[in-house]
Every structure is written in structure tokens, then in C-alpha cells.
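Give me the fold.
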Amino acid sequence: MTDHEKPGRLPDTAVERYLERIGAARPERADAGALRELHLRHLLAVPFENLSIHLGEDIVLDERALVDKVTVARRGGFCYELNTAFAALLRALGYRAELLQARVLGPDGRVGIPYDHMALLVEDADGGRWLADVGFGDHSHLPLAFDERGEQADASGVFVIRDVPGTDGDLDVVRDGRPQYRLEPRPRALADFEAGAWYHRTSPESHFTRGVICSLLTEDGRVSIGGRKLYRTVAGERTERELGTEEELREAYRELFGIVLDELPTVPAAGEKSRPNP
């Protein structure tokens, strides 16, 4: 990454607003313990959601715009949005954070498109390297030790980062024996992810254009809205409930995720085009 591609530093006002959004104090030192706290609080406060795609809102891969979306608009986003914003916060707090591209691995072993996903390589003040990812939905609650190749226990499962033979250093991130995504360890610029973000917000082949999702980690599980259904997972037990009216749906977004919607996201019927982005 050249000097002109390097992102700018967030001003203190934006940092304080971000920390308030996730309910975290400014760490005294950019160490591993503070990173774990920031990562977990982010997951508990900022939802993984694709509402912009189905509201006709533009999605701009601009660091300050994405930080404002999280902090001022008090929204969430998908991987490109959430991990870009989180990286900006971490850099402002003294961490080194690089953007990494990954390809999601399906249950049938198929590999997703290039720049299918964004994750972060974070270096703390002591030189420790961590895989941070607040933009994959249901994933590890805490950062994973990037250079560890053994099992790493997390509240959401057991993770392994393993080398992929025959590649130029690629790594598979595995959860409970199931590969999640294939990571390329070379740092990338934000502009490199434009094509992947465009694909996921426009292509009928992308699962993001096929349905509405809003999901958040909770202290005892997870809460999600998928379409018009509310899903709750508490202590491993999942329940679901139909949100029958528009007011119920709006209230659920407001109460559970802090998202106030003037209009509800809509998914076009098969054969129809999605609402165009402005």
C-alpha cells in the first residue's frame, strides 16, 4: 500500500463518538487485552445488517462515511462497512490495522468470489498479531491469534487458522471443523474491495440481495431479524416469531437494534430488479 493510499487518522471527536457507540472506554494502551474488549463490545453494539441494499441507500467505501454510518446514523452494515470502520477506530487508538481480502467457503467446498469478504490483521503495541473480524455475522467473539495454528477456544466455538497447501500463503479460518473463509495475508487498500461490494449489493447471485438480515450478538446469545421473522438464540436454544405488522417490524428494529426506519426494506419478487442505489 503506497503512502497516498493510506487512510487518514480519525479526529478525537469521532473517536470519542465511536467509543460511546460501543460502550467502551478509551484504552490506556493499544494492547491485546484492550483489543479483545473493543472487539467484543463492537459485536454487542453494532449490528451486522444489509438494510441499505433493500432501502435503495448508496453504499460508499469511504472510511469517514462508514464511521459516520456507525456512529452518527447509529447503523450497522456488512463486512466491508463494519471492518473498515473498526480498522479506523483501532488505528486512531494506536493499533496497526490492515485490510485483508477473503473468499467465503461454502458447505460444498466452493470458494466465493475474490474480495468476497474483508477481515483485519491487527498488530498491538507488543507486536502481537490478531485476526479481527466484526463483519462476518455469527463468528468469533474475540480476535484470533493470527500466527497460532492450533485450536483457539472462543465463546462461539473452537477456531483453527490453518495453512492452505499449494497457495501463496493463504489461510483457512475454520470453526468447529467447518471452513469459514480463505484469507489472503497480503494487505489491501479499501479501493480493492469496490468490485466485491458492488457484486454483493447488486448481483442476484449474492445472498445479500436475496433477503434482509439484521443480527446482533447479545450477552446470552443472538437476536436477528430475517425478512419478517424475529429469531432469538438464548443459551443455545433458538426460537422464532413472525412479525405480522409493519409497526411490529419497525418496533423490533428500534428496540433490539436501535435502528429507526422511516420506511421498511423490501426485497423484490423473483424476476424484479432491486431498488436502484442513488
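The first strand starts at residue 48 and ends at 49.
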